[in-house]
Structures
1.
Amino acid sequence: MTHIANFIAQTTQGGEPPPGLGSMLFPLALMGIVFYFLLIRPQSAEKKRRAAMLSGIKKNDRVVTIGGIMGTVLSVKDDEVTLKVDESSNTKITFARSAIQRVSAVAPGESSTDLQPRK
């Protein structure tokens, strides 16, 4: 408490006035701009890229799920994707579309130049 009183007394005794709001606002605004360009903007670009990848899934694409299961797309519904994960036993598993992590190969008969890069 006495520290606050000493600070007030020093600033009122003809010393320099405390910095104004403008001199404190500029660094804060600069930090906000840097935060936007380093975090928010790349995250929204990644979100758009993932949405495009999920909406572009089609039959016969090879995909990897977020659980690491690899398979071939048999059918695509609104929010469901059915994968064939084993050729010998004809095992099929249905996943939520959002569970697809990446498309690892293009469908047969398509050239890879027609599609966006797949990761």
Note: The chain has a mean pLDDT of 83.
2.
Amino acid sequence: MVGGGSNPTPGEISLAHRGVLFLDEISEFPRGVLESLRQPMEDGEITVSRAQGTLTFPSRFLLIAASNPCPCGYLGHQKKACHCLPGAILKYKKRLSGPLLDRIDLYVDVPPVDDLDLVSDLPTESSETIRARVIAARERQKYRFKDLNIYTNSEMSSSDIKKFCRLDDQASNLLKQAISKLSLSARSYFKTIKIAQTITDLKNVEIIDSACISEALQYRSSFD
């Protein structure tokens, strides 16, 4: 994952630079491997030290991870019973440490698709429409950061956030309440604003409103 060898070579973390690193069944990975993701997720680079020398590789990747709720996969399922012991579920979830989870921007629960929804012919938004909206949002970010060496909202530092992200009064008040009620860490606080800014860009508006903050907070909920 991190790279290595007698003459240090890049691992999957660096090979995914400016691309996507997808970890399926992330809770099945050894905890030590997962903890090695923390530094590159924060800094955008990883340093590999071996007897022959020390090298630093770029590693600014988009991490996408999937995980079951328990070892058997049926915890919370509406139609199938989970047969995992409580201790096994706890051990399974503890593979993902708090500091690692705090570095993940979005948590999305994906329930089983209902039978009627699976066979439904109801019209849905096309991929072409969604693609156009995403491209427009990326162009807004490209213009926003034209004088900086960053490309997306996720790369903003705290000073960048204060410079570029504008919240209306209701959004600011809602975020202040969330800090207290949800015990947000400093990292989660800034990530919430960055997510809300991306939602705002997708809506093609300038100011972050309370609806965007509310949606961003839903994605920052704890991993249960």
Note: The domain at 3-104 is CATH 3.40.50.300 (Rossmann fold).
3.
Amino acid sequence: MPWRTSGKGLPKNVATGNAYQGINITLLCIERMVKGYASNIWGTYTQWQDKGCQVRKGEKATTIVFYTPVEKTKTNEAGETIEDKFFILKSFSVFNAEQVEGYVAEIEEGGEDFANDAIEAFIANTGADVRYGNDRAYYSVSGDYVAMPNKGQFIDTANASNEAHFYSVLFHELTHWTGAEKRLNRALGKGKTTQDYAKEELVAELGSMFLSMEFGVNDNVLRDDHVIYIKGWLEALRSDSKFIFKASSDAQKAVTLLKDGLTK
């Protein structure tokens, strides 16, 4: 993930900006790791609504707890009035920023700005709905859009510039976009098997490689991170040794569709 996210530091509440404390840090960090959330921003259903956001249908909440102080006046055995102080444990249901629609995180940027005119024209011509300002990069099957971090979130690494990282990630997600039922109709969405997922990821990464090399964003050299990523999925495809040929063919079809600008 060669970009900055809102995931650094302790988990924070979207309404107050305060960090959670105690057991809630543990609960939210575990949930974030299990679900793979890049963001560390959380809030209740109402808090997200107050921010103009909507929790997506079907999303499950994470339970956290708070000790609320309570003070009551009572009379002791001697007839004296005393103040009794104690805590009541209350639970709340919260959702991560990646479970809601409409939230744009405040992310520290500082990466060098860039724009490849040829690639920008190519992206615009695809007709894809690309939404920037996210912590993660993904293609939403249900919403039929591509989510991307902003350019300024991407960073230089040992094997590629921030520009190469940005465009290769976007090419990967645009290749996924071509697999929608109304386009090339590959196995996307609900009902995918592990095998289906492995195959689709291999197609997307090959598509990204083809486009990155064509536009020269990586000097026509296969990057180590591409190679390692593809190697991992090939290991998951040992039962279908011929699939690399079909994956290459599907990736080429995806690239052709993107270049032709077909949006239906």
Note: The longest helix spans residues 194-215.
